[in-house]
């Protein structure tokens, strides 16, 4: 086989190795148990969604949202922060209703969360701001 016929194969393999070496974080490639509270290489938040299958079952999928996080990318939230902040990685979507629960806001504003888990705090800070509320005022 001549080199010119091997060139497309060489280029394809090279692009795969470059992609793997860059270790790009793509939401759609994340398993569902680390999807929520992760941020893709693009700086966009990952979110867990459901889809109904033909057999009636529900499948979870990790998707890229349109929400861009300033100054943060390639990030998967730690289990310590998930626990400290009282959030659930298996929750689908996010709602400001959680901010009305005193137990949740107490954990979110605790030093273990508020001072060490900037990703989660930023998410809920912006959610509260969207509702016209300053997060620390919820306590």
Automatic annotation (TrEMBL):
Query: Which superkingdom heads the taxonomic lineage of this protein's source?
Result: Eukaryota
Q: Which keywords does this Swiss-Prot/TrEMBL entry list? A: Signal
Q: Which PANTHER family match?
A: PAR1 PROTEIN
| InterPro entries from the UniProt entry | PAR1
The residues the entry assigns to the signal sequence are 1-23
Q: Which organism is it from?
A: Quillaja saponaria (Soap bark tree)
Q: What is this protein called?
A: PAR1 protein
Q: Record's Pfam families? A: PAR1
Identify the taxonomic lineage of the organism of origin: Eukaryota, Viridiplantae, Streptophyta, Embryophyta, Tracheophyta
């Amino acid at each position: 086989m001549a080199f010119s016929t091997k060139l497309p194969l060489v280029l394809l393999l090279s692009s795969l190795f470059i992609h793997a070496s860059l270790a790009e974080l793509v939401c759609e490639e994340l398993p569902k148990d680390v999807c929520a509270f992760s941020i893709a290489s693009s700086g966009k938040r990952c979110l867990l969604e459901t889809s109904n299958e033909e057999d009636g079952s529900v499948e979870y999928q990790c998707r890229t949202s349109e929400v861009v996080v300033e100054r943060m990318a390639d990030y998967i939230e730690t289990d310590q922060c998930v626990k400290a902040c009282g959030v659930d990685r298996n929750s689908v979507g996010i709602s400001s209703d959680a901010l009305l629960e005193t137990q949740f806001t107490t954990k979110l504003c605790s030093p273990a969360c508020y001072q060490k888990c900037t990703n989660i705090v930023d998410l809920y800070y912006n959610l509260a701001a969207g509702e016209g509320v300053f997060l620390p005022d919820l306590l």
